[in-house]
Amino acid sequence: MTIRIHGLNKHFANGKHALRNINLEIAQGEMVALIGASGSGKSTLLRHVAGLMSADADAGSCIEINGRCVQRSGLIQPDVRAIRSEVGFVFQQFNLVDRLPVLVNVLVGRLHRMPFWRSGLRWFNRQEKTLALEALSRVGISECHAQRASTLSGGQQQRAAIARTLVQGAKVVLADEPIASLDPESSRNVMDILARICREDGSTVVVSLHQVDMAMRFCTRVVALRDGEVVYDGPAKALSQRLLRELYGMQADELLHGMEPPAALHPVPAAKPEVAWPHSLPRAA
């Protein structure tokens, strides 16, 4: 397994139980969508997997990536930086340095592989620059390499952020609401790029999404959270109207409006009862 999460709990200082006994295994090369209403724990879970946030000090809880422990019993491991070097994190707000050229922003993904003196001076050799240009070409914005990041559109900035993970050589890509602030066309482009990285590079991609249609279109497996608890873990095609209404309440009809869902989202005849909750469903391979 690429990612293994066992017995994960998280309480915030205000008493909110943000994650509740999370147990998940995600295999290499899977593309998994995390869905759920705002505040359900999607971003919190991704940040724990990346070692950016520590869990409750529960005995036996652990998170592993590629067999290496990120944190155990609420303690982030001393070698977590080495593990993070193989984990790309794509943020909702891109996390680019506006005043720097796009190429330099992408090359930041190589800093962990460079001698300290070169990383401090931001001195990149020809091979590294070629690698960054190839990454920008893969995401479709190589012509923007010399522009300041601030001049790019939101969709272009998110593509640059994804190119940074390619240059990093990430085996796992965690994307936290990467299309939340993008228009529909840019959203489709970004999701298509993530899907191609998963398919062509064999990378594991876990993406949190509010857009249910995108989760169903691009991800074979969906993990749904409600109040910090996993309430569904299975094939995207098996999502039901009842489950989505349980997750999103009054927002569900708005999310479903205008979608072209697979047959599983259409009402099921009484003779064939609809599958509502996940634990009776097989987990996607």
List keywords for this structure.
globular; disordered C terminus; 6-stranded mixed β-sheet; single chain; 285 residues; 5-stranded antiparallel β-sheet; alpha/beta
Describe the structure in your own words.
There is one protein chain. The protein is an alpha/beta fold and 285 residues long. It is 32% helix and 22% strand. Strands 7-8-9-3-10-11 form a 6-stranded mixed sheet, with helices on both faces. A 5-stranded antiparallel sheet has the order 2-1-4-5-6, covered by helices on one side. Helix 7 links the parallel strand 8 and strand 9. The C terminus is likely disordered.
Percent helix range: 25-40%
Helices and strands: which structural class?
alpha/beta
Q: Tell me, rounded to a whole number, the average pLDDT.
A: 86
Task: Give unreliable regions as ranges.
Answer: 261-285
